[in-house]
Amino acid sequence: MSAPVAAARPPVTVDDRDRVAPPRPRDLTLPLVALGLGAAVAAALVGLLVGPIRLPVGAVVGALVDRLPGAEVAHGLDAASTTILFEIRWPRVILGLAVGALLSGSGAAYQGVFRNPLADPYLLGVAAGAGLGATLAIVTGTASLAGGFALPAAAFVGAVLAVLATAGLSLRRGRPSGPAALILAGVAVAALLAAVQTYLLQRHADSLRAVYGWLLGRLSTVGWAEVRLVLPVLIVTAVVLVLAAGRIDVLAVGDEEATTLGVRPGPTRAAILAVASLATATAVAVSGLIGFVGLIVPHGVRLIAGTGNRRVVPLSMLFGAAFLTLADVAARTVQAPAELPIGVITAFVGAPAFLLILRSQQGRA
Amino acid sequence: MSAVVVRGLGVTIDGAVVLRDVDLDVAGGTWLGVLGPNGAGKTTLVRALSGTVRHAGTVAIGGDVDRRPAARARRLAVVPQTPVIPPGITAFEYVLLGRTPHQGLRLSASLDDRRRSLGVLQRLELERFASRDLGTLSGGERQRVVLARALVSDAPVLVLDEPTAALDLGHQFGILELLAELQRERGLTIVATLHDLAMAGQFGDRLAVLSEGRLVAEGTPAEVLTPATIGRWWGVDATTTVDADGRVDVTVRRRAADGAGRATTPTSGPEGRRSGSVVARGEGFEPPAA
Ligand SMILES: Nc1ncnc2c1ncn2[C@@H]1O[C@H](COP(=O)(O)OP(=O)(O)O)[C@@H](O)[C@H]1O
Ligand SMILES: [Mg+2]
């Protein structure tokens, strides 16, 4: 076989280093982040304004500004309304923002690390562990100890232990193995813990209502104490996940190529999953099992912002915060004065939204 | 100075010896073509050079034996045989990944990283694909984007595993010519595995032949590609002509259908199973993988 000479492409001799700086590809990150921030602020305002007692917009905004250090604004809210605003609605809105951001951010991280768009933050046993922990606390009657903090503490411990068990089971000869082993171990741990939980409920049928009330998620019984627990975790999670988002992008090309790009896949994956799991465990401990948020919010974000995790992770946190806050508003108004579990709202909105997203993606592929 | 120095390289996977006792020297700024039939250990050699497989012996890249990923990635860039293309990634985002060895944890890629990525896309005449979904590009276009990701790392050594395997003849030449230009422009040291003898005869300053995990020949194309060596290691009949530039034209032809070829098939290594099977399948010459 003698070789034909290639004539397909003329040689280019200009080195790119000699050229003037090429134009930047359009980067929509900042506008989108601004949009997400705006959505979160707007959702927070709605959360503050809507409720059984109407608070006027101007007065609420005035009272909020008045709270800022150095600002003096006459807002005209009476004492009772001020209490409702700052002791009931404000902590609840903050908690909704935080839980939404934690669940959506860790959902985006899980999906990136596992290279699976269906991975959700409950994948590694967080939900089953928290569920069992909460069930144990409720059926043993210890849930109300420590000023009611025994319940979230039990859920948190259960969630963390479950993830540790999953991680331990997935080890091969003491070393971390691939994501598939983790997922399988998570399925096994979740099944086992769910079985134990079902057995406990069978034995304590009187606790069914309390347990299911917790399982379906709620932001209702909160004051500032929960917020103080959650905010440090939110800050750590936001900083770590946003900074590590570029590494999640690198993991997307698989372990071998990630290594040739200078990233150690095992430790990187472990660190990101540890933070995302801690975030999820914290969210679950204070709000119960709120489904679908960690799945649909990142998916929706990818539809508008593409797949790069440097955009998807921060935007998921912002839009997740807005989404959960609005879902909570719906939970407390749809059947007012009764409250629906927020998990019912997120699933009711989330399942159809998820289907729509899947269909639109099939259309594009 | 040698840009790549390999001494006593051995790789054992699940008890099977895949590479044994390989010594190699690649001078800076030169192109080494690594030949060998399927299963000879070419990909394993690439993995050993890039530090993704456990091995005995030493691999020094630019005089540095540090095989930690962060250190190795700055000295050596890899174009894998079958790159993983993340769903939905744009060509620009993919090329930007090549800057990872120079990035710490940060909010977003730096302006410098973006400029370099776009510069390489322009150099490879790919800028019109910058915001295209990489999965929607043709095989030849995609292969150049993968090459762009390797180039943007500015690593002095470029290792490519069968860079032409999925391409038609014209695109095979296109990629290899491009590599030759880049080698001249940037003084790159190139190690490229190839299984196509005709291509190997046209490109590369030196050639090495792997057979059954051993390095069985190393030299100029004219030294390595002769009818005798091709018969010995690939088990096919070939004629070769060497031109003034030292390039080798390799012509292979089918053996007679009466099985005579089989009877005369020389063996390659101690066991000699693989070279025999090439002829037994009647292919004569390995086509590029589909
Ligand atoms: N991960 C692995 N597990 C078992 N055997 C392997 C593995 N990787 C490579 N091998 C074996 O090593 C030999 C060389 O493989 P490879 O380096 O891929 O060859 P080439 O790239 O030359 O076709 C083959 O026999 C292959 O089956
Ligand atoms: Mg190979």
The beta-strand count of chain B equals 11
Number of helices of chain A: 13
Q: How do the SSEs of chain A run, as a string of H and E?
A: HHHHHHHHHHHHH
Annotation field: number of helices of chain B: 11
Amino- and carboxy-terminal Cα gap of chain B: 38 Å
Concise summary:
The complex is a heterodimer of chains A (365) and B (290). Chain A has 365 residues and is mainly α. Chain A has a single domain, classed as ABC transporter involved in vitamin B12 uptake, BtuC (Orthogonal Bundle), CATH 1.10.3470.
Report on the structure:
The complex is a heterodimer of chains A (365) and B (290). By secondary structure, chain A is mainly alpha-helical. Chain A has one domain: ABC transporter involved in vitamin B12 uptake, BtuC (Orthogonal Bundle), CATH 1.10.3470.10. Helix content of chain A is 69%, strand content 0%. Chain B has a six-stranded mixed β-sheet with strand order 5-6-7-3-8-9, with helices on both faces. A three-stranded antiparallel β-sheet of chain B has the order 2-1-4, with helices on one face. In chain B, helix 6 links the parallel strand 6 (157-161) and strand 7 (189-193). Mean pLDDT of chain B is 85; it is low at 259-290. The two termini of chain B are 38 Å apart. Chain B is α/β, with parallel strands linked by helices and 290 residues long. Chain B has helices spanning 42-50, 69-75, 91-96, 111-123, 139-151, 169-186, 197-202, 221-224, 227-234, 260-263, 273-280; strands at residues 2-13, 16-27, 31-35, 56-61, 76-79, 157-161, 189-193, 206-211, 214-219, 237-242, 248-253. Chains A and B meet through helix 8 and helix 9 of A and helix 2, strand 5, helix 4, helix 6 and helix 7 of B. Bound molecules: adenosine-5'-diphosphate and magnesium ion. Adenosine-5'-diphosphate binds at residues 13-14, 16, 18, 36, 38-44 of chain B. Adenosine-5'-diphosphate (ADP) binds next to strand 2 and helix 1 of chain B.
